[in-house]
Amino acid sequence: MQAVGLPAPLHSVSTPIDGGSLRVLGSGEAAFQAILERVRGAKKSVEIRAFLWRDDEAGNLLGEAVLQAADRGAQVIIHKDRIAAVYEYTGGNKQSFFHKRVDPIRGFQAWFLGAVYRAPGSFKQKPNELAQRILQHPNITVEHM
Q1: In-domain check, residue 69
Q2: pTM for the predicted model, two decimal places
């Protein structure tokens, strides 16, 4: 197998490789912007699989784009990993976008991770009106896996 050279530095979005549609998204920011553009341009459907979805600036930007797509008539399916709530409670701003009610099992897991890694979590989840509107929208299905 021959190595493929990257057509652009890793901090930017490459042009399609070998005439195909595959692109290298060289940074998290470039990838996130590409995701937002796709959701904002969706006309028929949006499908998102998310491990982490924090209640922060990025999470709310994506949430707004999803809600706007659904308002335009796109059918939206979000597959959200339930286990990731543990990491949402203990990392970043410690706020989960969807998992606002901390169940006992996730609470214990978050407490344990916080104790082991000396990174205490937060079980005080602040309400997010945007998340509630997404959960109640008729064109949006959120599956917690």
Answers
A1: yes
A2: 0.78
Residue 24 lies in a domain: no
Residue 35 lies in a domain: no
- Residue 12 resides in a domain: no
Per-residue pLDDT tens over the stretch 64-104: 999 999 999 999 999 998 888 888 888 888 888 988 887 78
Whether the CB-CB separation of 66 and 130 falls below 8 Å is answered with: no
| Rounded-to-integer distance, Cα 142 and Cα 70, Å | 13
Tally of CA atoms within 13 A in the half-sphere of 80 that contains its CB: 25
What is the tally of structural domains in the chain? 1
Residues 5-29 have pLDDT tens digits of 445 554 555 566 666 777 667 778 8
Residue-number span of the structural domain to which 71 is assigned: 44-144
Extract the tokens encoding 15.
């042009």
